[in-house]
Design goal:
Blueprint (H helix, E strand, L loop, with lengths): L1 H18 L3 E3 L11 E3 L1 H20 L4 E3 L8 H7 L1 H4 L1 E6 L6 E3 L20 E4 L2 E4 L9 E4 L4 H5 L2 H8 L5 E10 L14 E11 L4 H18 L7 E5 L11 E9 L2 E12 L1 H10 L5 E3 L4 E3 L2 E8 H12 E3 L4 E3 L10 E5 L6 H12 L5 E3 L5 H11 L3 E5 L1 H6 L1 E6 L5 E5 L3 H9 L2
Length: 434
């Protein structure tokens, strides 16, 4: 029963996402392509808002983190040094009967297919990196990879950023960018996809201070989710045991969220030690040590990593904000995340109300993302904006024309207040700054 309820909730969210223009199936008119998605008019706005909130917290509000935007295509030796060519694999099994493929480490019974009961093949390692060729000839010397993570672009630019920005330890480098993984079993809508956008920050510290900074970033990253409006009781930490730790990690914690399909990772915080810079120093033959001119010592810094997926974060905010009430479905998105900040409705399409509505909408545009709607009953228009997560709806009626004021409706409480048009901007500025 619980499984059916879970599927029902996710099915409803998928339907709402398409209906309101958050997320579409990629190449849908051709039948779609598995685990690839397009962001519609509301989805791209929401994604932009999430990235801006993260960038603001990581870069604009601090003086110890700089940003980069590294190339997706990198020298293939980068991925040899990082261990991805040799070790970035999942155990793959095939069903001999229905031909479906599965990760054997996620199966309870590895002897039979979970879908049809057929016999499974022996597990074999499957590299998750997408491979392509650079140049006109498809040969081994021309092989390049679509990056499976953005972190390596930060490590190879460690000295470039440090010297250009004149930074001293401890300091961090942040990046938002696309990554690609040829997942065997993607699923749960946009939770696990083959193409996704990462928001990663690598914080470089003295080896003796790694524990202090690891604890610091665990606390800081958990607090950030309050700015997204995520319910605190839905978040938890999960520590990686010895059998879960990645080859580069001394310590690792996941921030998990309780989705309808269970507790799942939404962000990873890792103590990567000096593994990455040491490997790149070894493979590139370049000196990547840091010189401390106070202590007069030269060393490879340790790295504390925070890694979060933008697509997964967007899904988390949608799931957390989704609520079915007696007469409506509503997304309780915080104003900073909501794709549309306010909608403007003339009560009817006559008597000068549309003209006044357009004037108010035009006046607010440039400051906020505004939606103008004059189609259908005002109740139906309210419901459409509730599903879109719009915090405020502004209605123009016959009194508006006489008194130069409007009705502003709050999405969450559905309370309405009367505001003069000359006070509307300041009213919204106060409410939307929360």
């Amino acid at each position: 029963m619980a499984g059916k309820e879970t599927n029902n909730i996710m099915d409803k969210l998928v339907s709402l996402s398409k209906r309101r223009g958050f997320i579409f199936q990629s190449s849908e008119i051709y039948g779609g392509i598995n685990s690839c998605y397009d962001y519609g008019p509301l989805g791209i706005e929401m994604k932009k808002n999430i990235k801006e909130l993260w960038w603001k917290a990581m870069v604009y509000e601090r003086d110890d983190i700089e940003g980069v935007d590294a190339s997706i295509l990198m020298h293939p030796r980068v991925w040899e040094a990082s261990g991805h060519v040799e070790g970035f694999t999942d155990p793959l099994v095939d069903c001999k009967k229905c031909k479906n493929r599965f990760r054997s480490d996620l199966l309870e019974d590895t002897s039979k297919c979970p879908r049809c009961g057929g016999e499974l093949t022996e597990p074999r390692n499957f590299n998750l990196m997408f491979k392509t060729f650079m140049g006109p000839v498809e040969e081994d010397a021309a092989v390049v990879y679509l990056r499976p993570e953005t972190a390596q672009g930060i490590y190879v630019n460690f000295h470039n950023v440090r010297e250009a920005a004149r930074k001293k330890l401890p300091f961090g480098i942040a990046q938002i960018g696309k990554a690609f993984r040829n997942e065997i079993t993607p699923g749960n809508f946009t939770f696990r996809t083959r193409e996704f956008e990462q928001m990663e920050m690598q914080f470089f510290v003295h080896p003796s201070e790694d524990e202090k900074w690891f604890d610091y970033w665990m606390e800081e990253r958990l607090k950030w989710y309050q700015r997204l409006g995520i319910r605190k009781e839905k978040l938890s930490f999960h520590e990686h045991g010895p059998d879960e730790l990645a080859h580069y990690a001394k310590k690792a914690f996941d921030i998990q969220y309780e989705f309808p399909f269970g507790w799942q990772e939404i962000e990873g915080i890792h103590n990567r030690t000096d593994f990455d810079l040491n490997r790149h120093q070894e493979y590139s033959k370049k000196d990547l040590r840091y010189f401390d001119d106070v202590k007069k010592e030269r060393f490879i810094p340790y790295i504390i990593e925070t890694s979060i997926g933008c697509d997964r974060t967007l899904l988390t905010t949608l799931v957390d904000a989704y609520e079915e009430e007696a007469e409506r479905v509503v997304l309780h998105l915080v104003p900073a995340v909501a794709p549309i900040k306010a909608a403007v409705f003339p009560l009817v399409k006559r008597d000068g109300m549309p003209e006044m509505g357009h004037k108010i909408a035009d006046d607010l545009r440039g400051t906020y993302r505004i939606f103008y709607d004059e189609a259908g009953s005002v109740g139906r228009r309210y419901r459409r904006q509730d599903e879109a997560g719009t915090p405020f709806c502004i209605t123009i009626d016959s009194d508006s024309l006489q008194h130069n004021d409007v009705t502003v409706r709050d999405r969450d409480t559905m309370n309405q207040v009367r505001i003069g048009t000359d006070q509307l901007k300041s009213y919204l500025a106060e409410k939307l700054s929360v």
